[in-house]
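The instructor's notes for this session suggest beginning with a concrete chain rather than abstract definitions. Hand out the sequence below and ask the class to guess, before any prediction is shown, which regions might be ordered.
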Amino acid sequence: VKESSYKKLCETKKILTVNGKFPGPTIEVHKGETIVVDVYNKGKYNISIHWHGVKQPRNPWTDGPEYITQCPIKPGNKFSQTVIFSDEVGTLWWHAHSDWSRATVHGAIIIYPKPGTSYPFPKPQADVPIIIGEWWKEDILKVLDEFVGSGGQPKDSDAYTINGKPGNLYPCSKHDTFKLKVKQGNTYLLRIINAALNEVHFFGVAKHNLTVVGVDASYTKPLTRDYVVISPGQTMDCLLQANQAPGSYYMAATAYVNGIGINFDNTTTTGILKYKGYLGQSTPPSLPTFPSYNDTSAATNFSFSLRSLNSRLYPISVPLKITKRIISTISVNVFPCLKYQTCEGPNGTRLAASINNISFVNPSIDILEAYFYQVNGVFGKSFPSFPPLVFNYTADVIPLELEIPKKGTQVKVIEFNSVMEVVFQGTNQVAGLDHPMHLHGFSFYVVGWGFGNFDEAKDPLDYNLVDPQRRNTIIVPKNGWVAIRFKADNPGVWFLHCHYERHLTWGMETVFIVNSGKLRTERVIPPPTDMPPC
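After discussion, reveal the predicted structure:
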C-alpha cells in the first residue's frame, strides 16, 4: 500500500494504491481455496484491508475492519492476512476498511468454480471486471476531515469512474476512458463491482441486454434487463452477448438517489464497447437509457426481481424456522450543536446515523481482541433486539426529539448455530433514503421486503422461502424494510453496517458476536502472531 501519482480531470494528485495500481490488482482463486496476502503499509496513514463477502469461516482475525477485528496496520508495518474461501463462487472484491481510503484502495476478486466443475450457464469467451468508483480532485482524507468537521454532508465527488477511468464526458478525459473490444457472436461475463463511496448506480450498455447470473458470489436464476441497479458493496455477474451491428457503443453508470435534500454527484461515467473490425467513428452515437435518477419503482423492481438459482446441482438451504428475530431501525439522525462545533446539519445541528437509535462509537482497541482476551470496558452487550423508540417510522413528519440518538459501543451476542432473522426498518428521520446494509462473515437470504412499517404478524406470511436471493449486501428501500435470514454457524466477531461511507462515518453500524461458549478455546482459529498492535 503506497502513494502513487495519477492525473485525472486535468489535475495530478497523489493517491493511495496497492502495488501502484488504481484500481488495485485482481485476485483470482478457485472455490474453496485459501490464500495468504502480505499487506505492507508503505503509506503515511494507518490502513486495514477487508475481503468483502469472503465468509472467512472460523477466522475473523483477518477480516479487516479497523477497531472491529483488528487495529489498523501502521505505516512501516506488515500484516499477513489469511483469506479462507468456502462456498463463494463468482465475483467479490477487496477494499480498505479504514477512514475513506477505499476510494482508491480496492480491487476485484474472481472466484472460479472448482477445477473439473463448470458454470450453470454457457462458458463465456472472456471475463471482464467492471469496477464503478468515485474520484475527487481533492485528497480524499481532506474531503473526509472537512466532512467530519462541518457536521453536514460531504463534498460530492467530481467524477464517477469505470475501472479507474472517468470517460469522455468529463474534461481532459477523452483518452482516460475504459475501452472493451468484443468479437461479434461472443459472450462476455461482466463482473460488476460498485466500489463507489456514497451512491447506488444504474449501469448498462447501449442497445445490449445484460443477463444477471450471479450476485455477491452466489448463482441466480437468469434475469435479463437493459440495465442493472447496484449499490456500494454489491457485486453482480452479467452475461453480455455481442449480438449487435458492428460499431461503438457506450457503457455508462449514473447515480440513483431518492432522498430529499441529499447532495450527490449527478454526472455520468462512460466506457466504450467496440466491435473488432469496426472502422467507423470511435465516439458512440448514444448513451444507454436509464430511469430518472430518483425512480424508486425502477430500482426496487430490479433489485427484488433477483432469485437464487436453487437447482439440483446448485441447491440452497433457506432457514424455515428461526431462533430469534431482531428488528433494527436504520436512521439518519442529528445531534444538537455544541458551542465549539461547526454545525451544517438541518437547523444548525450535526448530522449522525444509527441502528436502533445507537450511533456507534469506535473503541480504542478492536472488539475481537477485547472479547477474545476478556478485556473489560471496551464494549457493552446491550444492543437492543427491538427499536427502543416505537413510532410511525416512515411518517412524513417525525418529532425532533426522536431524531437524536444515543452514542455507544454496543454489540449483540448471538448463540452459535442459532437461526437469525434480522429486519432492517428504514425511517424517515431527518432524511429518508436507501441504505445498502452489509454483514461480514455470512451470506444471507433476502426473504422479504416492503414499503412502510414492518408488520410482524402479517408480513412474514408473504416471505419467499423457496428461492430468495443470497447476498452479503442488500439495499433497504427508502421508507421501507428488508428481512434477511442466516444460520449463525460462523463463530467470531462480525461487523454489520451501511455501506455508504457517509453513514458509516456517522455511526450506522453495530457488531454481532457469534458465541458458542467455546469461542476462546475451540471454535475460532488461533490469532495470527503478527496482529497489528493497538
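Then share the key points. The longest helix spans residues 140-150. The chain has a mean pLDDT of 96.
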